[in-house]
Amino acid sequence: MPIQSSQKGAAARWVLLAVTITALLLSTSCGSPKRSLNVFVASSMTEFAEVIRVDFERKYPEIDVRLNIAGSGALVNQIVEGASADLVLLAGATHMDRLQKDGSFLRPVTIARNSLTVVMDPRIASDVNTLADLTRGDRRAAICIQGAPCGALAFAFAEASGVDLSTATREPNVKAVLARVSRGEVDFGFVYRSDAQGAQEEVIEMTGTGADAFITSYSLAVARDGQRRQDINAFADAITHERAWKVLQELGFLRP
Amino acid sequence: MRAPLPRQFRYFAFVVVALVATPLVALLWRVPWSRIHELLREQVVVDALILSLVTSLIAAGTALLLGIPVALILSRMEGIKASITRALMTLPMVLPPVVGGAALLFAFGRNGVLGSSLEDVTGLVLPYSLAGVVLANTFVALPFVVLTTETALRSLDPRFELAAASLGANQTRVTMQVVLPSIKGSLVAAGVLAWARALGEFGATITFAGNVPGSTQTMPLAVFVAMETDQDAALAMSVVLILVSLTVLVALRDRWWPAR
Q: What are chain A's domains?
């Protein structure tokens, strides 16, 4: 018995140690009284938002920018259900309209556009010249869910061009689609030009498909809430600044 | 007859039960009851429901078939080897399901260690197929079978099997006719827990098997997709999931719980 109780004592000490370390880690990470900004970002703008965040935090070290990245539809759902967002960067008009109905955001500004494109696994690229080649055999596609702007766009394009998508896997956001193609889990996918440009080494973009006529626009809306007005405006300025546009352009976005 | 508990416990328990019930009631509150029939008749919903029931049942059966032998062996093991084996078999229960799905992808995906040779030899591609959903579900459900069964086996009085063996029953007969029947209750419990886990499975399924309506889009995935397009449909499907689960658990009259 005494052996067992000393073992228990040892286990308890380990647990205590683990708890202490966790507590220390937590206290250092939220020790300084930083102000924070919650920025909700459509997943196709992930890289852009990350660049802006790093620049912004360098300029305003006292502000902690928290990015919440998901499909635009999911973001608006979160806000409608009570998540607090200071700035919202969305793709597509439908979700922004839904956000406007919520009433707690100011009128949005369009900051960029993006066009649809088809990307494929390099392994099939040599056999594919036209859209019809894509669906030959049992080739597998990935596409955004219809609720995400990339999905709405892609489904519209597929319908217009007669591409059969009944066996396509529906992914929650555009980054998930791109990941499926670049890991070779599916043969082709529908993403934005900016995504294709960022993944040139893993996927091959198909040209001349007519997908580029399908365009979505990105808009920025800021919370009505006056408390953190200055911080919010500062971040909005960073996003709409000419320098930010350069970043967008490099990432493959189009002028609004 | 039991000694009475402190009265405060009763209030405390009431609050906790209410806390668990609140979100469920809140969900039921939002359900568009007048349209529920038409919402549930949509093809996507019917497909997802059937697929969910089929895959979760197959997965529970597979988990039992795979898990019981492992539990039998594990219940006779001791020391560090037993601990390591048990930890390994429990891991899918503790891991975030997405991680499990990713791991499955690296093993059985088209470019996975085993997946690519599987495709070359048999032409079978697990992701985006019903078999892939079953695999993902079995993976996360297996720990429930192994742990529940092993616990039951360890608390089993060894005298019965020793008696059977001394009466001349061979090893197979002892296991099949004495050991397993005497833990029948726990095996039912293991099966139900595995089924429940498989029915609710989301992360591993969407990561490994994808989200193809009609072939891999199970109820949880359909609910997730519908949350962004048609919230009413999502609510209607959630009601079905709650009802099916609750009915099964109540119908089993607590026989699904290993302690009984």
A: 35-113+216-251 (3.40.190.10), 115-215 (3.40.190.120)
Residue B28 domain-assigned (yes or no) = yes
pLDDT in tens, B206-229: 999 999 998 999 999 999 999 878
Residue B105 lies in a domain: yes
Q: Into how many domains does chain B fold?
A: 1
CB A166 within 8 A of CB A185: no
What percentage of chain A reaches a pLDDT higher than 90? 54
Per DSSP, the residues of B158-199 read HHHHHHHHHTT--HHHIIIIIIHHHTHHHHHHHHHHHHHHHH
Which chain B residue has its CA at the smallest distance from A168's CA?
A: B212
ipTM of this complex prediction, to 2 decimal places:
0.78
pLDDT band at A20 (very low <50, low <70, confident <90, very high): low
pTM summary value: 0.81
Dihedral sign for Cα atoms in the order A148, A224, A49, B103: negative
d(CA A236, CA A99): 17
Q: Between chains, do B212 and A148 touch, taking CB under 8 Å as contact?
A: no
* A184–B110 C-beta distance less than 8 A: yes
**Cα nearest neighbour of A71 on chain B:** B228
| Beta-carbon separation of A77 and B109 below 8 A | no
User: To which H or E segment does residue A88 belong?
Assistant: strand A87-91
B3-35 pLDDT, tens digit each: 888 889 999 999 999 999 999 999 999 999 999
